[in-house]
Amino acid sequence: MAEIITVDDPDDPRLADYTGLTDVELRRRREPAEGLFIAEGEKVIRRARHAGYAMRSMLLSAKWVDVMRDVIDEVPAPVYAVSPALAERVTGYHVHRGALASMQRKPLPAATDLLAGTRRIVVMEAVNDHTNIGAIFRSAAALGMDAVLLSPDCADPLYRRSVKVSMGAVFSVPYARLESWPRDLAAVREAGFKLLALTPAEKATAIDEAAPHTLERAALMLGAEGDGLSTGALRAADEWVRIPMAHGVDSLNVGAAAAVAFYAVATGRPA
């Protein structure tokens, strides 16, 4: 059973995991280096635990102690009970959901190991908006994609905003980082995947005509908002595919485009 500790000093060193949560650059550097991430809200905390992430501590306002009582009783990590005002001073924002947990990261698998047991994967290049990362992972989980590969410069899927937007779906879809971009795409192809680059370019094949759901193994490549896939990534692809647009719309937000494309890739997949 966890120990519930009432804390009334925002500078208490025991709250260090939760300081400056709105400082994106600080947290980007600090969290991977220290092997932690922050889960926000009851559902996300429970999903992180269910996915096997070890808890370092919880930070709860008083009314959330009873809500999280079963977790408190099961986990030996300390629970820090604080007032909403103190939580805001520590984190830098009003913690609307009243419950935060510091979780221990797991080592990422090697990309080659991840490819071995998958047939429908997402490959993201330089997607560095945490909201888009979270939305893409949520759609990938919901629509049956098996795994995600990230270029070295993609944002962290376990950053608080990504986890929150995904509603914990980042815990459901395994992911790995490629070390060399775009060179490591060759290893994806060698594993039997056809590389499909999602692009609004006119010369791309309409995704329904490309029929990606009929492929034995498909890797859908997504680029960053605005810039899209780089020239090097497009050259490395086996085929360019596009989502047909109407009413003069040239493209969709990458999160929305990903959901449409995932449905096309995963629906009716070979048994």
Automatic annotation (TrEMBL):
Specify the superkingdom.
Bacteria
What keywords were assigned to this record? Methyltransferase, Transferase
- Per its UniProt record, what CDD domains does this chain match? SpoU-like_rRNA-MTase (cd18095)
State the Pfam families in the record: SpoU_methylase
- Tell me the ranges covered by the tRNA/rRNA methyltransferase SpoU type domain, including all copies: 121-263
Q: Which GO terms describe its biological process?
A: methylation; RNA processing
Checking InterPro entries in the record gives: Alpha/beta_knot_MTases (IPR029028), Ribosomal_eL30-like_sf (IPR029064), rRNA_Methyltransferase (IPR051259), SpoU_MeTrfase (IPR001537), tRNA_m1G_MTases_N (IPR029026)
One term of GO molecular function: RNA methyltransferase activity
Protein name stated in the entry: rRNA methyltransferase
